Amino acid sequence: MTTAPAAAARPAPAAPLLTASSLHITFPGRHHAPPARAVDGVDLALAPGEILALVGESGCGKTTLARALLGLVRPTSGEVAFADVPLDYSSRALKAYRRRVQLILQDPSGSLNPRHTVYDAVAEGLRIHRYDGDERAAVAEALSRAGLRPPERFFLRYPHELSGGQRQRVVIAGALVLGPELVVADEPVASLDASVRGEILALLLRLRDELGLSALVVTHDLGLAWNIADRVAVMYLGRIVESGPVEDVLTKPQHPYTQALLSVLPDAGREPVVLGGEPPDPSRIPSGCRFHARCHILASGEAEAAGVAQRCRTDELPVLPAGSEEPRVACHWATRRTREERGQR
Fold first, then answer.
1. Please, are residues 134 and 212 in contact by the beta-carbon 8 Å criterion?
2. Are 208 and 215 in contact, with CB atoms under 8 Å apart?
3. Rounded to whole angstroms, what are the CA distances from 104 to 51, 63, 154, 224?
4. Are residues 267 and 211 in the same domain?
5. pLDDT single digits (tens) 242-284
6. Could you tell me which residue ranges the ABC transporter domain spans (predicted)?
7. Cβ–Cβ under 8 Å, residues 71 and 97
């Protein structure tokens, strides 16, 4: 009698490449106003080869968080670590760090010096880091990987001679030339025509598959997150309010804020949710759930019916844990609803 083979053990999750732990970033208030809490308690983890989308409205703190992860802003408290090593803010250590972590900016026209040729723009990082290999070959390889082929054809061109999509590819080549392990892309396709956006997103996916490149994509566009990300973290007023695998978060959003962001997408199949007012001032974060003043669930009476309306107004929610493979949400109403679905009273 033969026995069935033992089930293969599930591989252990890869150790995070980049982590943020209890991250807070405050800026001094103007005219004796309280400090602005731009990032107000964030735990975040990014695995090797993973694409994480950081999503939220303008002013929610996502760009400040990204700048902190790049070492461009020093946290008020908390820690950023890369490959399990806390970030060192000495100039020498940051220079070495930025060889491994590169930034792709939103506007390629603003990122490229109009007086520099494509070759010089891509070679700039090599020269800053005193690359001792074959510079011409490295520039050619980076341009080729970014989809500008044959690369030599672009060496002596200037930014004004290129299309918007080609300029963005030059910016990507400049990030790739140093062989980074992680890129932080801040609204990487926001300034491009719709016909070109898909090409750039496909390029980022191909680079992940070919090079094992990790990416943090900062965006206000949940549609972009759906097309490119493995996981998504939704940020509101300095804190992540929902996170998880992209399919879970975007097909079964739990937080009312995520639901509102999704409802305005074309073909969302949802009644559009119009959020009242602007996000609160980060120097005056409200008590309780920081979203409660704009929450349609609270305004409609659903939170009251669920017995959590007062908690929404008064009880602060915990910081979501980093890197969980399960969907997580910081919302009294969503948490209560999940417990009821599981039969937990």
1. no
2. yes
3. 14, 12, 20, 16
4. no
5. 999 999 999 999 999 999 999 888 776 677 888 877 788 899 9
6. 18-262
7. yes
- d(CA 253, CA 12) in angstroms, rounded, equals 27
Contact 235, 60 (CB under 8 A): yes
Q: Two tokens at 237?
A: 């007023």
DSSP three-state, residue 39: strand
Which residues, in sequence order, are CB contacts of 324 under 8 Å at separation 6+? 243, 244
| Pairing assessment for the beta strands 36-46 and 214-219 based on DSSP bridges | unpaired
Determine the Cα–Cα distance for residues 67 and 61; give it in Å rounded to an integer: 10
With respect to residue 240, please indicate whether it lies within any of the assigned structural domains. Answer: no
Please give the Cα distance from 160 to 250 (Å, whole number). 38
| 204 and 319 fall within a common domain | no
Q: How many domains does the chain have?
A: 2
pTM above threshold 0.85: yes
24 and 169 fall within a common domain: yes
Q: DSSP class of residue 149?
A: S
Alpha-carbon distances of 139 from 111, 121, 126, 143, 148, rounded to whole Å: 17, 9, 9, 6, 11
Per-residue DSSP letter, 27: E
Place of tokens 């994480």: 52
What would the pLDDT profile of 59-116 be if each residue is shown by its tens digit? Answer: 899 999 999 999 999 999 999 999 999 999 999 999 999 999 999 987 777 889 999 9
Give the integer Cα–Cα distance in Å for 118 and 115.
10
